[in-house]
Specification:
Two copies of one chain form a homodimer.
Chain A (H helix, E strand, L loop, with lengths): L7 H6 L17 H9 L5 E2 L12 H19 L9 H12 L10 E4 L1 H13 L5 E5 L4 H9 L3 E5 L1 E2 L2 E2 L1 H13 L4 E6 L13 H14 L2 E5 L15 H4 L4 E5 L11 E4 L2 H15 L4 H13 L2 H26 L5 E2 L7 E5 L6 H10 L2 E2 L1 E2 L12 E5 L5 H25 L21
Parallel strand pairs in A: 1-13, 3-4, 3-7, 7-8, 8-9
Antiparallel strand pairs in A: 2-10, 5-6, 9-10, 11-12, 12-15, 14-15
Chain lengths: ~425, ~425
């Protein structure tokens, strides 16, 4: 990962340095966080963040309905709650999951403080130091931060333009087991993968599940963006085809992230452990937030709101794809997502997205370098661009600035003939089909 | 701990049993949770829970102010936030801590999902499996659940009626280190300790801190109840005397627990690690909750509300102490807290609080058996009674029912002459001064 290691000087000044747990060795400031300081400057078009645009929410009506909520249910909503999460919230979540063909029992749902905490709890109950978690190559930087915090070994599985390669999954599991490793689960984002935007078609999901079942590997399906499908309907969730799949969901993208309400749907025995782990972690997940979200789902047209979000993100995605077509130098390729927040760019051979970043920021555009999404140093030729937050005009302008930065970098390389040998790692990106734009 | 182990049958039925992390070995259903099912029956007076009574909050005005909050700041309040917590919230927290003589910088505060999560993060960054955490004998069941989840070894330090014994602390550290153990920190609740209600006077705090400093042991001060002091003013926090103390605070008792907002104040280097751990755990602590609480602190007389809570809890505490004086059989002793939520009862010799529980529930009163608050099997002659939630009349009636249950149990022992030898453990309770009522 492209983490910024605490500097040697800082480390020497920390009087507690000998006291920390071994797991803190992997706790470094994430590239994403370090970027925020830069990307937040108003003159910079940030294509780096993953913040949803929630400006379209009906604030006046929401305010009035919160007033009602406090006056009628305030004493319960502001009290401690269940460690597993409130039953009414779990029932609503079962309704939401039905939109992606999932049949579930509210008793098998555990509410979490955002789906980030769902990752934390699943990792906590399954991972001993050194255990292997399989993940797409590339995968979500925040999930890998959690996996590292529990000293997991992250092993990437190759993708093509349809997502995870079933044969690569099989080979990885067989090879890792032969090496004596405990492969605990596959972590996958089948819809609009973060960072690539790639989606697994239905048939590919079946194939991946078949391999996982055959080899006895648990599947953890992370699905924050599924309902934000732009064209057509969401593809059935993997969990809808296999009740053994552990499924992570969230209201952060379909409603609002500030309430920090996500969930895990898990087989009953696993759910039991997750609840106990949750009680030790936070006693109860945010209670008022659960009342607030259930209140929203009960009294507002949440499906209509999602449709509004979909068109809004469609316009932003189109602005980004149009901008990339117009401004990217030859040799640059990118993915064309049908939903979610992200486009994955592969730079012309010889370029390095981390080395390019200062030049890009100088042109007033920011992104996340691809290495952040690999646990093993790959991704130097890639970058993640997000189209979720800025306006379409700003996004288009951002791609123009980015195109200029890349062109300038290419020109410098042509002039000074920089050695491209050091970028040999990048031949792995997206494996057999690098050009998926 | 008096945990209910998952039954052998359940364990055999769990198809994932070989997959779980080692740390789940300590994850058992807590006695507190198992009790909720019983205690929630309306005919039972529950002296078991630790829920604050928040019925006195000004709901109508709160509702209107939430409406305003959403309309004016909704887009920020419902968005992702900072991993460390919002600056405005950390500034308000510094103001709240000043009430207990603490001088701090908002930059050294990390917001957590309730102070339970503060415990989780502190344990996460300091504890490797087998490391020792020192805690009062007895100590908070929820903290021990967290410590167990990280495979810490909990070592209890004796108390008297003024809290932790400095000499016992010194002896424990020396002996544990001589045995090759890594003693990572002392966890202490100096105000109205949960479960005993005992408070360390100022001089005792100084003595404990002196020993900790001399031996280089970190102190983690957990202070959820300090501002709920009944007579007189809160005693200065340990953190106010030593900036190296890691301090845990919470709005759960001074405002409302449903927002799940607590915090850690820590030395700068430690704060840095906590923030990184927090990002891996939940990305950002509940954002809307922080806006809601800051809004409350800005627009309501929160000091006046705490004064209201103090008189309300005083009436409840008095009802409990009056009831115990009136109804407890000879040989029963109890603590007299000056705040917080709990009274700690020591039963006449020969009685066992777990064995007594079914009889008590039959009399329609519930409590938490003392063994829940020890990591090492002690506490069988004790029970924790809470006076925070039921009305004074119900509390008084609860002590009457409890007195009858104890008297009946004593009579049965007198009749059948049960062997008291099996209760030898209990001679440790509260060490040299068992009768502190």
């Amino acid at each position: 990962m492209s983490s910024l290691e605490p500097s040697r000087r800082d480390t020497r000044l920390d009087p507690y340095i000998d006291q920390y747990a071994d797991r803190t060795g992997s706790m470094t400031v994430s590239a994403v966080r370090a970027l925020f300081a830069v990307a937040n400057r108003p003159e910079v078009v940030s294509l780096a963040g993953g913040m949803p645009n929630i400006a379209d929410l009906p604030l006046a009506d929401l305010g009035a309905s919160f007033d009602q909520l406090i006056q009628t249910k305030g004493v319960q909503a502001m009290q401690y709650g269940s460690g597993q999460g409130e039953l009414f919230m779990r029932e609503k979540i079962v309704e939401v999951m039905a939109e992606e063909a999932i049949t579930a029992n509210p008793d098998d749902v555990v509410i979490t403080c955002g789906s980030q905490q769902a990752l934390d709890l699943v990792t906590r109950i399954f991972i001993d130091p050194g255990d292997v978690i399989l993940a797409e190559a590339p995968s979500y930087v925040g999930a890998m931060g959690t996996f590292n915090a529990y000293q997991a070994q992250i092993h990437h599985v190759e993708m093509d333009e349809d997502g995870l390669l079933p044969d690569a999954l099989r080979q990885a599991v067989v090879a890792l087991r032969a090496a004596g490793k405990a492969v605990k689960f596959l972590y996958t984002i089948p819809n609009f993968n973060n960072p690539t935007g790639i989606t697994q078609p239905l048939e590919r999901r079946r194939e991946v599940l078949a391999v996982a079942r055959e080899l006895g590997v648990l599947v953890v399906e992370d699905n924050p963006y599924g309902l934000l499908t732009i064209e057509g309907e969401p593809i059935d969730a993997m969990r809808s085809m296999d009740p053994e799949v552990i499924y992570l969901g969230s209201f952060s993208k379909t409603f609002a992230p500030g309430f920090r309400v996500g969930w895990v749907l898990a087989p009953h025995a696993v759910r039991e452990r997750l609840t106990i782990a949750q009680e030790a972690a936070v006693l109860s997940p945010p209670v008022f937030s659960q009342f607030a979200i259930a209140n929203y789902l009960d009294n507002f047209d949440w499906r209509g709101q999602i449709a509004t979000f979909r068109s809004m993100y469609q316009a932003r995605r189109d602005a980004m794809l149009d901008g990339l077509s117009a401004h990217m130098p030859t040799g640059t390729t990118w993915t064309s997502p049908n939903g979610g927040f992200f486009v994955w760019v592969t730079l012309p051979e010889g370029l390095d997205s981390q080395a390019l970043l200062p030049r890009a920021v100088n042109e007033r555009v920011a992104y996340v370098p691809g290495t952040a999404f690999y646990a093993d140093g790959f991704g130097s030729r890639n970058m993640r661009l997000s189209y979720c937050f800025p306006t379409p005009e700003r996004i288009y302008e951002g791609t123009r600035r980015l195109g200029k930065a890349i062109a300038d970098e290419l020109e410098m390389h042509a002039t000074f003939g920089l050695d491209t040998g050091e970028h040999r790692h990048t031949d792995r990106n997206l494996g057999p089909a690098p050009d998926v734009s």
